[in-house]
């Protein structure tokens, strides 16, 4: 198989988004741009981002450092607002953070004075459910990420990979419609990283939660995602969208896998 590359039509000739319009889109970014004020100067980070993500889809964002990948996640989660354009989830404008979105960062950001179960419970802080329901949900998600037996452990007693699994449990415990991942395995060794990629894929396949992930690792993107969005450097713009038309589980050493990886790397080299 070969990678299907969709090239955006320049705005001057068409307003079409990358790829066909998706009636089943859960997430839509329409003409999103973001400019920061840095030392009194305007710094344009994103320009004209048009993207729709289907319900249950796994999408990876790749691009050079500084192209705005993490800024896109912050806009989706509601931690920041676009300078121009709009974002919507299920047709409703994104106006701030909500339980319909969970996020996991590169650093696990667990509170060291809280146990694993107490850290995961923080993901339900704003949830309108009983204490018994919260306790059950925390136990279910600790089990889901393979941390049974470590609920009472503190982060300092865990390995880096275990801490990141706890962070994933915290991101999932409120059962969000969209999971956002900002290079969650970037600080891990290669073996742990590969293991957690497989674990993340297992969780995604079991729950089919819509997932948007930022990564610098093209192989990781090809292994995990349904589509790969390639961003140009600042100001970040969508260069291409690559459909990863490979059956799962994916063999990293196969010719088809290498072809998709080479296609994405070729776009990045531009």
What composes the largest sheet? 7 strands, mixed
Overall helicity:
25-40%
The largest sheet has its strands arranged as 1-11-10-4-9-8-7
C-alpha-based Rg, rounded: 19 Å
How many E strands? 11
C-alpha termini separation: 23 Å
Taken from the alpha-carbon principal axes, the silhouette is globular
Describe the fold and architecture.
With 270 residues, the chain is α/β, with parallel strands linked by helices. Helices cover 30% and strands 27% of the residues. The protein is built from 7 helices and 11 strands. It has helices at 69-77, 116-121, 131-144, 160-172, 190-207, 218-224, 255-269, and strands spanning 4-6, 25-38, 41-54, 58-63, 84-89, 92-93, 101-104, 178-182, 210-214, 227-232, 237-243. The chain has a 7-stranded mixed beta sheet, sandwiched between helices. Strand 2 (25-38) and strand 3 form a beta hairpin. The longest helix has 18 residues, at 190-207. It is globular, with a radius of gyration of 19 Å. The model is unreliable at 7-21 (pLDDT under 50).
